[in-house]
Amino acid sequence: MSLSSFLTNIYLRYRFKPKPGAAIDVAKTREKITRMLRYQSHLPADITFTSVTASAGLCAAAWFQAAQSDRTILYFHGGGYFFCSIESHKPVCAYLSRVARAKVCSVDYRLAPEHAYPAAVEDALAWYQELLKTSLANKIIVAGDSAGGGLAMACLLAARKAGLPMPAAAVLFSPWVDLACEGASMQTQANADVMFSPDSLPKAAALYLQGTPAKNELASPLYADLQGLPPLQIFASRHEVLLDDATRLHQAALNAGVSSTLILESNLPHVWPTMVNLPEARISLRQAAGFIKEQSKG
């Protein structure tokens, strides 16, 4: 583990991880993220950034484009479905654009509790349909982290239900795919996880679900039939409470005949690939880029 990751773990444990039993304060959580963004580095000079305002049928989004872009990544940010944004995930989208030689469309999907399920899924599917107007499906990769990883899976399922062609692949960083929060790692990794307490995720799920059953397949894709989905690449830390979301999704995909690659790392925080200042993040993003290029080369 690098010194940067060691220090990041300490910071997250003592400045970010909620205390057990603490209620979620949506406004304060969003404000905390806004404060953290003050220290975010500027976009690299070689990346073009273009905002897209919301229009009829489409939520706002943003494009990140490197000089050479041979494919398109549809990216969904994490944040428990109630915080984070295009702004918070600029570094990872920019880095992916460069190393994967891709245009990255980062979706500013509607957030809970103002917009409950299925608003985020509707936004995700609408943008996938929009990309299909100008890109071949085999040149599109769906990606996301945490809740955004779950949303990426939901997008695939919704696209399959709508009879749309599947994208080339999906890349998932610590995906949250079980809003029932029944993975054993929710308890076994409770102390090791530097970002979440076991009771914080069910509270976030309740903000998003607002009465929808937690095992609804478009809210919790782990419980869906995964047949016919494209190849998956899944990253997770062995020391996070969502470890079992990743491992169970990987196994469910294999059981359904879907190609799936699971990459586990130790002593790293939840969604570390999005923290591009960490050397481990850059290694993982280059792994993801290799997978993306291979799956979309046709």
Q: What would you say this structure looks like, in words?
A:
The chain has 298 residues and is of the alpha/beta class. Helix content is 36%, strand content 15%. It has 9 helices and 8 strands. The chain has an 8-stranded mixed sheet, with helices on both faces. α5 links the parallel β5 and β6. α3 packs across α9 and α4 crosses α5. The protein starts with a helix and ends with a helix. The mean pLDDT is 96.
Structure at a glance:
It contains nine helices and eight strands. With 298 residues, the chain is an alpha/beta fold.
How would you spell out the order of helices and strands? HHEEEHEHEHEHHEHEH
With strands numbered from the N-terminus, the spatial order across the biggest sheet is 1-2-4-3-5-6-7-8
The largest sheet, given as strand count, sense and whether it forms a barrel, is: 8 strands, mixed
Number of strands: 8
* Beta-strand percent range: 15-25%
Question: Which overall shape is indicated by the principal axes computed on the Cα atoms?
Answer: globular
Number of helices, where a helix is a run of at least 4 consecutive DSSP H or I residues: 9
Helix content: 25-40%
Mean pLDDT across the residues is 96
Q: Measured on Cα atoms, how large is the radius of gyration?
A: 17 Å
- Ranges with pLDDT <50 over ≥5 residues? none
Structural class of the helix and strand makeup? alpha/beta
CA distance, first residue to last residue: 36 Å
